[in-house]
Amino acid sequence: MKRGKNYKRVVQGHDKTKMLSLDDAVTRMKEKAYAKFDESVDVDINVGIDPSKGDQVVRGAVTLPHGTGKKVRVVVFAKGEHVDQALKAGADYVGLEELIDKISAGWMDFEYAVATPDVMGPVGKLAKQLGPRGLLPNKKVGTVTFDVEHIVKELKSGRSFFKNDKNAVVHFSLGKRSFDEAKLKENIRAFLKALSSSKPPASKGKFIRKVTISSTMGVGICVNADDILR
């Protein structure tokens, strides 16, 4: 991969294997950020699971104290009184047949999808479109529910979902580079607490094995996970 001169400048002298405290890591991440736009701050966590086994899937949700700093658009599949509840809570798009047809045609301008249980039959037809993107409503993470008002408000206020990938890594967005350090640290603590509580019973040994934070264009910085969890 070709790297630009700015990246080469910030990576010079950077030891990517050195593990820092959370305080030092967040400070270093901000110092190493060089992009002119307000980058996202991301965390990548290697977890102690076998991702090929269904009983070791890591999946969960967390409401970050300070949100992610990103605009969140929510689609709600519902009918009857739940349509009004979703709109009142701030959902961006609400409906059923028309929404299904629109998404089937390729429209994907939203970050979250919610559905009431009684419409999951027709919504299930969108599994091929929504499933690979992690957007298919799921009862386990609370996006299949009759309490649409509650879940829409939570999603709008910063509730985010996480799941491991095929390499046993969980990728998550913690906020924006413009957040002050205290807010970023509170967000990462909240996320790691939620992640720790999602450890599958079948997972043995140390669960959180490596934590790396970075800005979108910046370098990865190793964080002492034990320091955070304490």
Give the gist of this structure.
This protein is of the alpha/beta class and 230 residues long. It has helices at 5-11, 22-32, 81-89, 97-104, 120-123, 127-130, 148-156, 181-197, 225-229, and strands spanning 19-20, 40-47, 59-63, 74-77, 93-95, 112-115, 159-163, 169-176, 208-215, 221-223.
In the CATH scheme, the class of the largest domain would be Alpha Beta
**Strand residue percentage:** 15-25%
Please state how the strands of the largest beta sheet are arranged side by side: 1-10-9-2-8
The third-level CATH topology of the largest domain is Ribulose 1,5 Bisphosphate Carboxylase/Oxygenase
Number of strands: 10
What does the overall shape look like? globular
Number of helices: 9
Oligomer: single chain
Structural class assignment: alpha/beta
Any guess at the CATH architecture of the largest domain?
A: 2-Layer Sandwich
Sheet bearing the most strands, described? 5 strands, mixed
Uncertain segments: none
CATH superfamily of the largest domain: Ribosomal protein L1/L10, rRNA-binding domain
How many separate domains? 2
How far apart, in Å, are the first and last alpha carbons? 37 Å
Helical percent range? 25-40%
Summarize the structure in words.
- This protein has 230 residues and is α/β, with parallel strands linked by helices.
- The protein folds into 2 domains: 15-67 and 160-229, Ribulose 1,5 Bisphosphate Carboxylase/Oxygenase, CATH 3.30.190.20; 74-156, Rossmann fold.
- Helix content is 32%, strand content 22%.
- The strands form 3 sheets. The chain has a 5-stranded mixed sheet with strand order 1-10-9-2-8.
- Helix 3 runs parallel beside helix 7.
- 28% of the residues are buried.
- The model has no long low-confidence stretch (mean pLDDT 91).
